[in-house]
UniProtKB/TrEMBL annotation:
The keyword Ribosomal protein does not apply. Keywords: Oxidoreductase. GO terms for molecular function: oxidoreductase activity, acting on the CH-OH group of donors, NAD or NADP as acceptor. The keyword S-adenosyl-L-methionine does not apply. CDD domains: SDR_c. Belongs to the short-chain dehydrogenases/reductases (SDR) family. Pfam families: adh_short. This is Short-chain dehydrogenase/reductase SDR.
């Protein structure tokens, strides 16, 4: 029996949608039939993306570090498309800095957006799904291979992403009987706006040269797993973490 990743009838809220992976996720979910609420702080970029995608997309300005913004974002998504049954908690910052020099404020911001924001986004999504009687809920939280690999200069980021993986497993257990599948995806290094400048430097090029395939991943490398985890085909998949890194951790 074949499986379909057709998302027609689903309504998804995606955070961090104004650039990079979040933009990609919005495009591929809409192309697969879902309505997508595109959440981020940069309203101008969201509006441009929503216009480009068309009728299946709506721009939702929100800051995941603030619970009030998250609640307002879900309210706006429901006003546009009805109940949200699919959530991708993707918003994040890189929080780069050596442990001895990174500021307290930078640590707090990284943890607030990457970890607290992901938990609050998933929680609000689950609360709405339960309230609306959604029985095939899907929540995907974006982590990173830095959750498992020592990453000098990324201590706050790595800690936040390790927290996302464990939060995903815990939330999956809490909400299993509500029919909500919660999974995490841990990508390897993908060239996006957040890291583009680094990989053009000599140290960045040396880092790429150390990877088994000596290359960065393309954004399309996550398409299949994202569509799968958001679809009905993922009914029996919850509490799992999927590492997609092109062999970078080998």
């Amino acid at each position: 029996m074949g499986f379909s990743f057709d998302l027609t009838g689903r309504t998804a809220l995606i955070t961090g949608a104004s650039s990079g992976l979040g933009t990609r996720f919005g495009r591929i979910l809409a192309a697969s039939g879902a309505n997508v609420a595109l959440g981020a702080r940069r309203a101008d970029r969201l509006a441009t993306l929503a216009d480009d995608i068309g009728a299946r997309a709506a721009a939702v300005q929100m800051d995941v570090a603030r619970e009030a913004d998250i609640i307002a974002g879900f309210d706006a998504a429901e006003a546009a498309f009805g109940p949200v049954d699919t959530v991708i908690a993707n918003a994040g910052v890189d929080g780069a800095g050596m442990a001895t020099t990174i500021s307290e404020e930078e640590i707090e911001q990284t943890l607030a957006i990457n970890l607290k924001g992901a938990i609050l986004t998933a929680r609000e999504g689950a609360k709405r799904m339960m309230a609306h009687g959604v029985t095939k809920g899907r929540i995907v939280m974006i982590a990173s291979i830095t959750a498992f690999e020592p990453s000098p200069g990324l201590v706050a980021y790595a800690a936040s992403k390790a927290g996302v993986v464990q939060a995903g497993r815990t939330l999956a257990r809490e909400w299993a009987r509500a029919g909500i599948c919660v999974n995490t995806v841990s990508p390897g290094y993908i060239r996006t706006a957040i890291n583009d400048a680094w990989f053009d430097t000599e140290p960045g090029k040396k880092q790429i040269a150390r990877f088994p395939k000596r290359r960065l991943m393309g954004e399309e490398g996550l398409d299949a797993i994202i569509l799968f985890l958001c679809s009905d085909a993922a009914e029996f998949v919850t509490g799992a973490d999927f590492v997609l890194d092109d062999g970078q951790t080998l």
